[in-house]
Write a sequence for this structure.
């Protein structure tokens, strides 16, 4: 009898843990489709940045990184600079993101979802 209780004592927590893992795997393996910008991917967004970014605002070489959210409607929201190079280039990056047209939002299970994108820009010395 003690042996049965001991076995149940060890097996029940393990079976509960494996059920939780199974739920997570189902959620994470959904059919996610990435957001699209002007009919393409991040490469089209990069072209938009290059067309509209005023590179004369960049005063030093280095890396600038911004993050923003594309909401369920395709709007660019929650813009922030995660790695500051200088105030001028950061301000210019924010200006360009604010004029960004709508994206086609990402989807999971056929429904639009919001996602966060981190976008780095590296500037070299002239």
């Amino acid at each position: 009898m003690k042996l049965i209780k001991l076995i149940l004592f060890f097996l029940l927590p393990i079976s509960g843990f494996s059920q939780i893992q199974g739920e997570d795997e189902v959620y994470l393996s959904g059919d996610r489709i990435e957001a699209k910008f002007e009919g393409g991917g991040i490469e089209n967004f990069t072209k938009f940045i290059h067309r509209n970014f005023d590179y004369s605002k960049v005063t030093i070489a280095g890396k600038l990184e911004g993050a923003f959210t594309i909401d369920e409607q395709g709007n660019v929201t929650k813009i922030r600079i995660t790695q500051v190079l200088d105030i001028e280039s950061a301000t210019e990056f924010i200006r360009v993101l604010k004029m960004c047209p709508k994206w086609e939002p990402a989807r999971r299970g056929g429904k639009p979802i919001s996602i966060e994108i981190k976008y780095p820009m590296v500037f070299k010395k002239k």
User: Anything to note?
Assistant: Strands lie at 32-33, 62-70, 76-83, 106-108, 111-113, 115-123. The chain has three helices and six strands.
